[in-house]
C-alpha cells in the first residue's frame, strides 16, 4: 500500500474523519531520532531540530560529514539492533531522517559540502543497507539575506518575518505568487527525487502570518494553498510529517503531526523539565491523535534517570502514532540503550490509537502558566497534567510530574516517574 491511500474522491485525508479512515491513509511510523552524530565539517554546526513518526523507523541526525557520514551509518546499525526485535513481522524498513544542517542555508535546500555525493548518494548507501530515508526542511522560510530573497523580493509576504534565535531573520514564502509556488513545488519534487520518502516539514506556522500577499486572500487561504502545493509535489507515496503546525488547517494535508514542542532545547540539552511539557501537550491535544498520527518527540535515553526515561517512553506510548530514539547509541552504556523499551510500550506507540485521560479536570489549576525553561532554571516542576491515563490496550498508567513521591490510584509513584496501575 502507498504511504497515502487516496479515497475515491481523490481528496486528502481530513482531520475530521474517523481514526480507522486515517490509519488507512498511512501506517503508524516508528522513528529513531539521533542528534549530533559527531559529523565533521568546515561549517559551523547548525541547530538540530526534533523528530519524526511509526511502522517505519527513522534515525535523524543534525548533520553528516564527508564519506557518507560513517558515524551516522554506524549509529543506524546500533539503532537497528535495538529496534528490530520489537517490530512486527513484515514491518517497513527503518528510516534515517536527515535533520537540520544538511542544507546550504534556510531557503537554499541543496546539500552542503558535508554530503560530497549529495543526499541521493547517501540515500543509495542507506537503501543498500535496507534503510529508508527522510529529510527535514522548513519549506516556507528563507533567510532574509539569502540570494533567493534578494533576487525575488516579490515572492515573499510583505511585512511578515520570523526571527530564529540562532539563524536570524527569515522571510515567509508567498504561495499565492505563481512563481513562488512553482519554486516551492520544484524544491519538493527535487528532494523527493533524491530517494527521500518522508518529509519533515517544520515551522509551518509562519505560513499563517498576516501580511501583504500577491493574491487577495486570507492568511489561512494562503496557508492552505502552500500545503496543497507541497502535498502535490511530494506525491501520494511520500509521508509528510507536519511540525510547528496548527492542527486544523494542517491535518488534511499531512500524514503525521508533531503535537507538542521539542523534547530538548539547545543550550539546555536533555533535562527533566521538558518531559512534563510533552505530557501537558498530550493532555491538551489527545483527541486530535484520533484523526492523525501524533509525533510526541522521542524518549531521551541520555543524562536522565531511569524513572525519567520511562516517564518519557510512557508519554510516547500515550500518543500511539510514533516511536523514536534521539540519541547516538554508540556513546551510551549498553544498559542505557534499551531503557524505556519493552514490547508493550512499543506496541502501544505503534497502535495508531491514542490513550485517553481518565479526567481532564485538575484538582487545582496551576499557580501560573508553566514554562519548561523557567522550571529548569528554578529546578521546580510546576506543570499540572492529567495523572491517570487509559491506554489503548485497556491498561492504566499513572504519572507523577512532581518533585516528591506521591500515591496515584493507590500505587506509590516516585517523583518524575510513571507506573502501571491496577484496573
Mean pLDDT: 84
- Tell me, briefly, the overall form: globular
pLDDT < 50 stretches: 1-26, 33-68
Q: From the alpha-carbon coordinates, what is the Rg to the nearest angstrom? A: 21 Å
- Give the percentage of residues in beta strands: 15-25%
Oligomerization state: single chain
Account of the 3D structure:
The chain is an alpha/beta fold and 423 residues long. It is built from twelve helices and 21 strands. An eight-stranded parallel β-sheet has the order 2-3-4-7-11-12-13-14, covered by helices on one side. The chain has a four-stranded antiparallel β-sheet with strand order 16-17-18-21. A three-stranded antiparallel β-sheet has the order 8-10-9. Helix 9 (306-319) packs parallel to helix 11 (343-349). It starts with 18 loop residues before the first helix and ends with a strand. Residues 1-26 and 33-68 have low confidence and may be disordered.
Properties at a glance:
single chain; 423 residues; alpha/beta; eight-stranded parallel beta sheet; four-stranded antiparallel beta sheet; 12 helices; 21 strands; 19% strand; disordered N terminus
Short structural description:
Helix content is 28%, strand content 19%.
Give the topology.
Elements: H1 19-25, E1 29-30, E2 32-33, E3 57-61, H2 70-83, E4 94-98, E5 103-105, E6 108-111, H3 118-128, E7 132-137, E8 141-143, H4 147-151, E9 156-164, E10 168-173, H5 178-193, E11 198-201, H6 219-234, E12 239-242, H7 247-250, E13 256-258, H8 274-285, E14 293-295, H9 306-319, E15 322-323, H10 334-337, H11 343-349, E16 356-357, H12 372-378, E17 388-390, E18 396-400, E19 406-408, E20 411-413, E21 417-421
Parallel strand pairs: 1-15, 2-3, 3-4, 4-7, 7-11, 11-12, 12-13, 13-14
Antiparallel strand pairs: 5-6, 8-10, 9-10, 16-17, 17-18, 18-21, 19-20
Helix pairs in contact: 5-6, 8-9, 9-11
Amino acid at each position: 500500500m502507498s504511504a497515502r491511500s487516496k479515497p475515491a474522491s481523490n481528496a486528502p485525508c481530513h482531520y475530521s474523519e474517523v481514526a480507522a479512515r486515517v490509519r488507512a491513509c498511512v501506517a503508524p511510523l516508528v522513528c529513531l531520532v539521533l542528534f549530533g552524530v559527531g559529523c565533521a565539517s568546515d561549517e559551523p554546526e547548525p541547530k538540530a531540530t526534533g523528530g519524526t513518526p511509526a511502522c517505519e523507523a527513522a534515525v535523524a541526525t543534525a548533520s553528516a560529514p564527508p564519506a557518507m557520514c560513517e558515524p551516522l551509518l554506524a549509529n543506524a546499525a546500533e539503532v537497528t539492533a535495538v529496534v528490530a526485535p520489537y517490530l512486527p513481522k513484515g514491518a517497513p524498513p527503518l528510516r534515517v531522517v536527515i535533520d537540520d544542517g544538511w542544507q546550504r542555508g534556510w531557503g537554499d535546500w541543496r546539500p552542503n559540502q558535508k554530503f560530497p555525493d549529495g543526499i541521493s548518494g547517501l540515500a543509495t548507501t542507506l537503501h543498500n543497507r535496507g534503510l529508508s530515508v527522510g529529510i527535514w526542511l522548513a519549506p516556507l522560510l528563507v533567510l532574509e539575506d539569502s540570494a533567493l530573497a534578494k533576487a525575488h523580493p516579490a515572492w515573499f509576504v510583505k511585512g511578515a518575518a520570523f526571527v530564529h534565535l540562532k539563524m536570524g531573520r527569515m522571510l515567509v514564502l508567498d504561495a499565492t505568487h505563481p512563481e513562488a509556488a512553482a519554486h516551492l513545488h520544484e524544491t519538493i519534487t527535487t528532494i523527493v527525487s533524491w530517494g527521500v520518502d518522508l518529509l519533515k516539514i517544520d515551522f509551518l506556522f509562519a505560513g499563517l502570518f498576516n501580511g501583504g500577499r500577491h493574491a487577495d486572500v486570507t492568511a489561512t487561504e494562503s496557508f492552505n494553498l502552500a500545503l496543497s502545493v507541497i502535498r502535490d509535489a511530494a506525491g501520494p507515496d511520500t509521508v509528510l510529517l507536519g511540525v510547528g503546525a496548527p492542527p486544523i488547517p494542517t491535518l488534511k494535508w499531512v500524514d503525521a503531526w508533531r503535537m507538542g514542542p521539542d523534547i530538548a532545547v539547545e543550550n539546555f540539552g536533555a533535562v527533566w523539565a521538558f518531559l512534563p511539557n510533552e505530557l501537558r501537550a498530550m493532555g491538551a491535544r489527545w483527541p486530535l491523535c484520533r484523526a492523525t498520527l501524533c509525533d510526541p518527540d522521542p524518549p531521551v535515553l541520555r543524562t536522565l534517570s531511569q524513572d525519567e526515561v520511562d516517564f518519557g517512553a510512557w508519554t510516547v506510548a500515550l500518543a500511539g502514532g510514533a516511536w523514536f530514539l534521539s540519541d547516538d547509541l554508540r556513546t551510551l552504556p549498553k544498559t542505557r540503550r534499551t531503557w524505556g523499551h519493552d514490547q508493550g510500550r512499543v506496541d502501544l506507540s505503534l497502535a495508531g490509537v491514542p490513550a485517553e485521560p481518565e479526567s481532564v479536570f485538575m484538582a487545582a489549576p496551576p499557580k501560573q502558566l508553566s514554562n519548561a525553561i523557567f522550571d529548569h532554571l528554578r529546578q521546580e516542576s510546576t506543570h499540572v497534567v492529567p495523572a491517570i491515563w487509559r491506554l489503548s490496550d485497556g491498561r492504566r498508567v499513572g504519572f507523577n510530574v512532581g518533585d516528591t513521591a506521591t500515591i496515584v490510584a493507590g500505587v506509590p509513584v516516585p517523583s518524575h516517574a510513571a507506573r502501571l496501575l491496577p484496573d
